[in-house]
Amino acid sequence: MRILLVARNRIPVFAYGGTERVIWDLGKALNAMGHRVSYVVKPRSRCDFGEVLPLDKRRPLLPQVEVAMRQVGADIVHFQSNPFADLEESERFARPYVMTEHGNAELGTRYPRNVVYLSGDHARRHGSAQYVYNGLDWAACPAVDLAAPRRYFHFLGNAQWPVKNLPGALEVAAAAGVPLAVMGATRLQFKPEFRWTRQAGVRFHGMVGGAKKFALLNGSRGFIFPVLWHEPFGLAVIESLYFGCPVFATPYGAFPELVPGHCGILSYSRAGLVSALQRADEFSAAACHEHARDHFHARRMACGYLEKYQQVLDGQALHETPPVTQVHPRDLPWLP
User: Fold this and answer.
1) Percentage of the chain surpassing pLDDT 70?
2) Domains of the chain
3) Spatial separation of the C-alpha atoms in residues 281 and 279, rounded to whole Å
4) Cα–Cα distance for residue pair 194/325, rounded to 1 Å
5) pTM of the entire predicted model
6) Is 165 left (phi over 0), alpha (psi -120 to 50) or beta?
């Protein structure tokens, strides 16, 4: 199969990146399975396993995609965001396509009929049953040292998004009396509001990637992540599990699907997570690692999308009617 992946991103990514990492690992897995992969992405992107065609942001997207599909002989195009101005335009688009929704939308948002979501919860909140779990290329990570000393907990996420709830993670760490390594923020923050963190026992590492991030994860006792929205998936969760870290988070969005009982504790409250941290040593780093390795790898993701591609190529839309956002995704409770 010849597959064109389209994203308004640059590949590859180093430090912070969700969609970029997923589409890179998806393309790499599809290529390893014998499929031909090409990308339409931002200029200055590069890829050693597929052709890269630069996206011109000054021009309409769909005509560029039509040209790219002819140029590479693509059988199907896989959009990583909604390229259509409205549902009528999606129905008029004559090429076989699949679209992945990577985020959350406002109540009442309507989607093209060939949309795919990232988890069962993500799909259900849109009245859909079509989803493919994200997966990562674990072979690209260094070997995990499950016997390494683990002396702190960690937070991993873009702290400029209030829904990631770094203040909640700081509260939990302070109340539990545990050190915290923060990846995705600095001690002094100006956006979305001013914050200066004086809390003892907290080290800020900024936006990190590569060897530094992996080393920090490999030294952690667990992941504190009390998000305040319905997380569509949670790459930080599966990465943390892969490095042997149990997860202590709120039970929103996809987290109950990603974190079984032997890999962490989910609670709506600060007190619940503080209590959970006292049990951190009861969790097996090996079991957490094996769960992520076996369930959330890139080849499994690629197989899931290949099923969706084939359904569309066989002339069957993924949904009979356009899915609609049915649940408000943000401003969820964070209890004492």
Assistant:
1) 96
2) 2-137+299-313 (3.40.50.2000), 141-295 (3.40.50.2000)
3) 6
4) 32
5) 0.95
6) left
What is the distance between the alpha carbons of residues 318 and 312, in angstroms, rounded to a whole number?
Answer: 7
Cα gap 259→249, rounded to integer Å: 9
Pure H helices in the chain: 19-32, 61-72, 87-92, 120-124, 166-176, 210-218, 235-242, 255-258, 270-277, 285-295, 298-313
Residue 171 DSSP SS3: helix
Q: Kindly state the tokens that stand for 25.
A: 């690992």
Name 244's bridge partners: none
Asked if residue 255 lies in contact with residue 224, where contact means CB atoms within 8 angstroms, the answer is no
Q: Which of 100, 90, 111 is nearest to 23 (CA)?
A: 100
The tokens of 235 are what?
Answer: 């790459």
The closest of 136, 298, 125 to 217, measured between CA atoms, is 136
Q: In whole angstroms, give the CA distance from residue 215 to residue 156.
A: 13
Helix (H, G, I), strand (E, B) or coil at 289: helix
- Tokens at 33, concatenated: 């399975």
Structure tokens at 106: 């406002």
17 Cβ partners below 8 Å, 6+ apart?
9
Q: How many whole angstroms separate alpha carbon 155 and alpha carbon 173?
A: 10
Is 131 exposed, middle or buried (CB count within 10 Å of its CB: 0-12, 13-18, 19+)? buried
The pLDDT assigned to 29 comes to: 98
Per-residue pLDDT tens for 266-310? Answer: 999 999 999 999 999 999 999 999 999 999 999 999 999 999 999
Q: What is the pLDDT of residue 10?
A: 94
Give the rounded percent of residues in the chain with a pLDDT score beyond 90.
89
Residue 195: strand, helix, or coil: strand
45 closest CA partner among 56, 32, 61, 59: 56
Amino acid 51 reads: E
**Lookup: tokens for 78:** 């896989």
The two tokens of residue 147 are: 């016997």
pLDDT over 80 (residue 129): yes
